[in-house]
Design brief:
single chain; mainly beta; eight-stranded antiparallel beta barrel; 8% helix; 47% strand
């Protein structure tokens, strides 16, 4: 991925977190914990906005960047990933996204056996290019998802939007101080 392409995008807003559990056909005896840090949606182009895009900018922001950490205790499996997600389809609260990016496995247990076409690496770790599909249901505070990767990693989890819970409580509820003693 070209760094100049990444620098053309302007990412504004707060990043969110996702957590889930991954099962993998390449891990014979263990499941793994999956933690993700995801950017807000942005428009990945340097072209000027059209009239329709200026009226409804959220409809044209379809791309996100995802940092991923997969950990299988006790350090049998440790993986880091960098993916770019692109929303292909959205119907009300349900969306379907395609993603692609790099995965780096740093620790491998004795039960690790990967069969992937683009694997490169050494005795200490491997890396490869991965692609996958994410189906997600946005329910406000939580957004459950199912992720199936080309490498056989299946993740079930949820995106957490804690800012909706911790919004200014004084503004949400009419709080009035009562005088003491009377």
């Amino acid at each position: 991925m070209s760094l100049s392409l990444l620098c053309q995008a302007v990412i504004e807003g707060k990043w969110t977190g996702e957590c889930g559990v991954s099962t993998m056909r390449m891990f014979n005896r263990s499941a793994a914990l999956n933690l993700r840090y995801i950017s807000p949606r942005f428009r990945w182009t340097d072209e000027d906005l059209t009239e329709a895009e200026e009226k409804h900018p959220e409809e044209f922001r379809k791309t996100r960047i995802m940092f991923e950490l997969i950990y299988g205790p006790p350090i049998k499996n440790l993986c880091m990933g960098l993916n770019v997600q692109h929303r292909m389809w959205k119907y009300k609260k349900l969306s379907m996204e395609l993603y692609g990016g790099l995965k780096f496995f740093f620790a491998r247990g004795p039960d690790f056996a990967i069969k992937h076409a683009f694997v490169k690496g050494s005795a200490k770790g491997i890396w490869y290019i991965n692609a996958g599909v994410i189906a997600q249901l946005n329910l406000g505070i939580i957004a459950p998802f199912a992720d199936i990767g080309y490498d056989g990693i299946v993740t079930i989890g949820t995106e957490l939007n804690l800012r909706t819970i911790y919004k200014k409580p004084k503004g949400r509820y009419k709080l009035h101080a009562r005088p003491v003693g009377g």
